From TrEMBL, chain A:
Keyword Oxidoreductase listed: yes
PANTHER family: XANTHINE DEHYDROGENASE SUBUNIT C-RELATED
Pfam family, one: CO_deh_flav_C
Matches recorded under PROSITE patterns: FAD_PCMH
FAD-binding PCMH-type domain location: 1-177
Database matches in InterPro entries: CO_DH_flav_C, CO_DH_flav_C_dom_sf, Diverse_Substr_Oxidored, FAD-bd_PCMH, FAD-bd_PCMH-like_sf, FAD-bd_PCMH_sub1, FAD-bd_PCMH_sub2, Mopterin_DH_FAD-bd
Protein's UniProt keywords contain Signal: no
Gene3D superfamilies reported in the protein's UniProt record: 3.30.465.10, CO dehydrogenase flavoprotein, C-terminal domain, Uridine Diphospho-n-acetylenolpyruvylglucosamine Reductase, domain 2
Protein name (Swiss-Prot/TrEMBL): Carbon-monoxide dehydrogenase medium subunit
From TrEMBL, chain B:
Name assigned to this protein: Carbon-monoxide dehydrogenase small subunit
Pathway listed: Alkaloid degradation; nicotine degradation
The keyword Iron-sulfur is annotated on this UniProt entry: yes
Molecular function (Gene Ontology), one example: 2 iron, 2 sulfur cluster binding
CDD domains: fer2 (cd00207)
Gene3D superfamilies on file: 3.10.20.30, [2Fe-2S]-binding domain
Length: 285, 162
C-alpha cells in the first residue's frame, strides 16, 4: 500500500529538526532509518501530518569516546554499529545483538537511535541498552536532558520522550575489567521479531562471577532486567550448576504476553533457557 | 511535490515527486525501471532490493525523496555496456538459481552487496547474507551454488566489475 500524504521536512541540524517538529502540527513523526516507520505508514497504522527526516542531520551519526563513556549518535546505522572499532572494543554486546537485527538491507538503513526510540518490546536493542546501563540524551525546545535506560522505556512503544523532543545520542559506559558478553535470540526467521532474547554481560574476578547484567527482550511491555538472576550470580562460582540454578529465576517479575508465536508460560521457559545459555557463554563456559 | 535529483544506472534524472512516493514506485512508474519488482510490499521478501549509494536496500522501504542526491543501481544497471552479464547474473543463469524468477533481481542485488563485503563467503555466510530475500520456489540450493560460483569467478576475474 501507499502511505497517506504528509508534509515532508528535511532539516540538516538538530536545531532545525526541533523547529520542524515544533512547527509540524498535531501529528509529527520523526523519520530515522524508516525501517519500522515506513512499514507502519504503508499499512496506514500511522498517517502523520508531518514527517521530519533526519537523514541529513550529520551531527547525529557516528561513535566517539568521552572518557569512560562511548557516545553513539542516534542516526548511526546498524551496519555502522556492527563495523565500528570503538563499539567492538568497549561495547561488543551492542555489535553482537545488532548483527541479529533483521537482514543486511534493513541494517543498512535502520538506526540505533531509531530502534531505541521505537521501543518495541520485541526489538533487540532496548534490552541491550538496559543491560549496559545506557543513558539517553534528549534534545528539546528548552535544551537537553539525560534519562537513564530504566526510566527511558516507559511502556509498550512508549518512551520518556516528550512531545517536541528528539533522541540525539546514547551514552554507554565502557565495560572495563574482564567482561564476557552474549546475546541469545530465539526467533523463526530473519525478519521475525524475537520471541524472547537475552542480553548478558558477565564480569569474572578470581575465578568467580563478580557481576552479571542481564537484559530480557520481549518479556513484558518494556525491556526488563533479570534482577533475581543477577543477584544470585553475584559472587557465584563459574560452574554450569551455579549458572543453571541462578537462571531458574530469570522470569521472576516479568509479564510476557501470549500471542501467535508463543504463550506466556513458554516465554518464561525460554527466558530461563536463554539466560542459562547467554550467561554460560559470557562467563566463558 | 518535492524535486529530487538522482543518478540511476548511470543516467541523471530530475523529477518532482510526492513525499509519500516509495523509491520502488518511482523507479518503476516514473523511470520505467520495471526490472526491480514489488514482491511482498511489507519489507520482508527483498525482491525490490537495489543499491543506494553502494549499499543494498529494500526500495519499498525508502521514500524516493530520501534518495535525493544519491546514486542508485538497479538490476538493469549491472550488465556491461556491451550487454555482457554481470558475473552474478551469469552464475544464476548457469547454475539455474531460479524457477519462477520473481525473486531473482533482489537475490542478485543482495548477492553483489554480500560479495563486495565478503568476496569468498562460506555457505553459511551466503545463506545469512541473503536472509533478507525470500524465494518460494527453489529451496535456495541453486541460489547458494550460483553465489558460490560467482564468488569464484569474481575473485579470479580481472575485469574489475563491481
Amino acid at each position: 500500500m501507499i502511505p497517506a500524504p504528509f508534509a515532508y521536512e528535511r532539516p540538516t541540524t538538530v536545531d532545525e529538526a526541533l523547529q520542524a517538529i515544533a512547527a509540524g502540527g498535531e501529528d509529527v513523526k520523526i523519520l530515522a532509518g524508516g525501517q519500522s516507520l515506513i512499514p507502519v505508514m504503508r499499512l496506514r497504522l500511522a498517517a502523520p501530518e508531518t514527517v521530519v527526516d533526519l537523514t541529513r542531520v550529520t551531527e547525529l551519526r557516528g561513535v566517539r569516546e568521552e572518557g569512560d563513556v562511548l557516545v553513539i549518535g542516534a542516526m548511526t546505522t546498524h551496519h555502522d554499529v556492527i563495523t565500528d572499532p570503538l563499539i567492538a572494543q568497549h561495547a561488543p554486546l551492542i555489535a553482537e545483538a545488532t548483527e541479529t537485527v533483521a537482514d543486511r538491507q534493513v541494517r543498512h538503513r535502520g538506526t540505533f537511535g531509531g530502534a531505541l526510540a521505537h521501543a518495541d518490546p520485541a526489538g533487540d536493542l532496548p534490552a541491550v541498552a538496559l543491560a549496559l546501563d545506557a543513558e539517553f540524551v534528549l534534545a528539546g525546545p528548552n535544551g537537553r536532558r539525560t534519562v537513564g535506560a530504566s526510566d527511558f522505556f516507559v511502556d509498550y512503544l512508549t518512551t520518556a520522550l516528550e512531545e517536541g523532543e528528539l533522541l540525539v545520542e546514547i551514552r554507554v559506559p565502557k565495560l572495563t575489567g574482564s567482561w564476557g558478553v552474549r546475546y541469545e535470540k530465539f526467533n523463526r526467521v530473519a525478519q521475525a521479531w524475537s520471541i524472547v532474547a537475552v542480553a548478558a554481560a558477565v564480569r569474572r574476578e578470581n575465578g568467580h562471577i563478580a557481576e552479571a547484567r542481564i537484559g530480557l527482550t520481549n518479556m513484558g511491555p518494556t525491556p526488563l532486567r533479570a534482577r533475581a538472576t543477577e543477584a544470585a550470580l553475584a559472587g557465584a562460582a563459574v560452574t554450569a550448576e551455579a549458572i543453571a540454578d541462578a537462571a531458574r529465576s530469570a522470569a521472576e517479575g516479568t509479564s510476557p504476553s501470549s500471542d501467535l508465536n508463543a504463550q506466556a508460560d513458554y516465554r518464561e521457559h525460554l527466558a530461563q533457557v536463554l539466560t542459562r545459555r547467554a550467561v554460560s557463554a559470557a562467563a566463558g563456559l | 511535490m518535492t524535486s529530487i535529483n538522482v543518478r540511476v544506472d548511470g543516467a541523471s534524472y530530475s523529477d518532482d515527486v510526492e513525499p509519500r512516493t516509495l523509491l520502488v514506485h518511482y523507479l518503476r512508474e516514473t523511470l520505467g525501471k520495471v526490472g526491480t519488482v514489488v514482491g511482498c510490499d511489507t519489507s520482508n521478501c527483498g525482491a525490490c532490493t537495489v543499491h543506494l549509494d553502494g549499499e543494498a536496500v529494500k526500495s519499498c522501504t525508502v521514500f524516493a525523496v530520501q534518495a535525493d542526491g544519491s546514486e542508485i543501481t538497479t538490476i538493469e544497471g549491472i550488465a556491461g555496456g556491451d550487454g555482457a552479464l554481470h558475473p552474478v547474473q551469469k552464475a544464476f543463469h548457469e547454475m539455474h538459481g531460479l524457477q519462477c524468477g520473481y525473486c531473482t533481481p533482489g537475490m542478485i542485488m543482495a548477492s553483489i552487496d554480500l560479495l563486495k563485503e565478503n568476496p569468498s563467503p562460506s555457505e553459511t555466510e551466503i545463506r545469512e547474507g541473503i536472509e533478507g530475500n525470500l524465494c518460494r520456489c527453489t529451496g535456495y540450493q541453486n541460489i547458494v551454488r550460483a553465489v558460490q560460483q560467482a564468488a569464484g569467478e569474481m575473485s579470479g576475474a580481472t575485469g574489475g566489475q563491481a
